[in-house]
Amino acid sequence: MIDELCAMHPEEVSKPRTYRQRARKDFLALCMKKKLSKKALRKGLGKQLRYLRRNLEHIARLSGSVLLTVLSARWHRDLLVIGELCRQQLEMWQSGKKSISDRIVSISQPHVRPIVRGKAAAKTEFGMKLSISVVDGISMPERMSWNAYNEGCDLWYGISSGTVSDTATILNRSMPIKSTGRWPTGCGARLEGSG
Length: 195
What we know:
Layout lengths: L1 H7 L11 H12 L6 H25 L10 H23 L18 E3 L7 E3 L2 E7 L2 E8 L5 H11 L8 E3 L17 E3 L3
Parallel strand pairs: 5-6
Antiparallel strand pairs: 1-2, 3-4
Helix pairs in contact: 2-3, 3-4
């Protein structure tokens, strides 16, 4: 992006220093370590964030004389996503937190959110969560979300609204209970099991 903006600049401006090769070398050195300590990871993340922030500042300076519309639509969208990604990562790095709301994990698909599942093979999954109800053999989507949510809440709303069949619902005590602390009465759902 910096190369393209410099090429489109009305005055012959020299390309700013980007430290691309040094940034790549530092990144590979961090990835190649067999045992990566928390201190080394934090130091490496800080370096990469400083490289990225420096490049974003160069782009902001160049955009004063060259409109960002000269970039392709995809690059312009990616630039906006990278700016937000940098802000999120910098906030997490400065505060020492490991998570942030609406965290971006993919530049090409910024709407995708991580879903922690706790499975042995893949502790974190990416993609849409979908709740489906089957009525008389017909599947209907009840809820679709790219953000993680608790499926037990969908069952609660289904029971209380009457969309879930009262004759076929058997609940386990380990299911999450809504803030009231009890299941809706008169819906026909049975609560079984220990928990």
